[in-house]
């Protein structure tokens, strides 16, 4: 006969309160059922643990020695169970996220604020990275979730489409091209362009689009941060190319933002995790908050609605 947690808890409760009747009430079982649990535990151990006396229940010498080592173990187990229940109920937990800078500056803070409202004790550790670095961090378990452009990476990852945005040109409203509803790449190729550095997914997208029309573009400036591009465009140094989801576009409402095309130049942004790995309850809660913000965020189209 095996030793059960139920039997151990029954023994400790009877010992603590010195009464089978009171212990049965606290454990929400009948007294005969409690007696059976104690008897089965004694049979499994081959020792008598409790004696019934006119004054209640008292431990035998073996029972007292057993109780001294058992109670702290049960307390530790109960603490572990409570911790797991907190994780399951999303009352605590840590989510490690790697995201594209354009997403980290725009959509992500809104999702983090939503999560803080619904689950105030969940924590998020955010790392900004370019697309290939995001995939590598997910692959090596440095993060739980990645948010990056879709690279069609194969079976090592599970990919969930999040949204599609498009590249827009940011330019002075009096610029001749600002009169157009959209700007063809052939016209844009003749202009001084302000672009992100070559390791960014946005720059690769722009370079590929120009390559398809047989153009090789050399920007007048290339920088690491979208905010720098906006500042340069405001200063009249050229036309900045940024994703429509970039929060930096709101920094300069006096500038005109025009989509590229036709054809439009866009990207698909996805939620990435390792294939075959379950998300923690905290990571699931974060993913839900992110999906909800995608539905509300200006400049993106949720892919499930495309």
TrEMBL record:
What SUPFAM superfamilies has UniProt attached to this entry? Periplasmic binding protein-like II (SSF53850), Winged helix' DNA-binding domain (SSF46785)
Q: Which domain of life is it from?
A: Bacteria
What keywords appear on the UniProt entry?
Answer: DNA-binding, Transcription, Transcription regulation
Q: Which InterPro entries match?
A: HTH-type_LysR_regulators, LysR_HTH_N, LysR_subst-bd, WH-like_DNA-bd_sf, WH_DNA-bd_sf
Is the DNA-binding keyword given for this protein?
A: yes
> Would I find Oxidoreductase among this entry's keywords?
no
Q: Which residues are in the HTH lysR-type domain?
A: 3-60
Concerning its family, UniProt says: Belongs to the LysR transcriptional regulatory family.
Q: What is this protein called?
A: LysR family transcriptional regulator
Q: Which organism is it from?
A: Roseomonas gilardii
């Amino acid at each position: 006969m095996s030793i059960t947690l139920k039997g151990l808890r029954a023994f400790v409760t009877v010992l603590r309160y010195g009464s089978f009747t009171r212990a049965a009430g606290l454990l929400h079982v009948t007294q005969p059922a409690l007696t059976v649990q104690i008897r089965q535990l004694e049979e499994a151990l081959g020792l008598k643990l409790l004696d019934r006396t006119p004054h209640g229940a008292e431990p035998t010498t073996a029972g007292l020695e057993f109780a001294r080592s058992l109670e702290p173990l049960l307390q530790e187990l109960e603490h572990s169970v409570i911790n797991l229940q907190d994780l399951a109920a999303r009352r605590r937990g840590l989510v490690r996220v790697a995201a594209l800078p354009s997403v980290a500056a725009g959509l992500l803070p809104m999702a983090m604020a939503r999560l803080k409202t619904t689950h105030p004790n969940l924590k998020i550790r955010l790392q900004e990275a370019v697309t290939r670095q995001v995939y590598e961090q997910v692959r090596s378990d440095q993060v739980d979730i990645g948010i990056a452009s879709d690279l069609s990476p194969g079976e090592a990852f599970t990919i969930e489409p999040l949204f599609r945005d498009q590249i827009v040109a940011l330019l002075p409203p009096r610029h001749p091209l600002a009169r157009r509803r959209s700007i063809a790449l052939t016209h844009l190729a003749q202009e001084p362009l302000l672009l992100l550095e070559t390791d960014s997914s946005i720059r690769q997208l722009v370079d590929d689009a120009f390559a398809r029309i047989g153009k090789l573009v050399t920007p007048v400036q290339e920088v690491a941060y979208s905010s720098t591009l906006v500042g340069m465009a405001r200063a009249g140094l050229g036309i900045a190319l940024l994703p429509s989801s970039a929060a930096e576009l709101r920094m300069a409402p006096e500038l005109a933002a025009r989509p590229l095309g036709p054809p439009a130049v866009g990207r698909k942004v996805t939620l990435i995790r390792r294939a075959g790995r379950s998300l923690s309850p905290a990571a699931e809660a974060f993913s839900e908050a992110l999906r909800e913000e995608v539905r509300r965020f200006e400049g993106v189209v949720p892919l499930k609605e495309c």
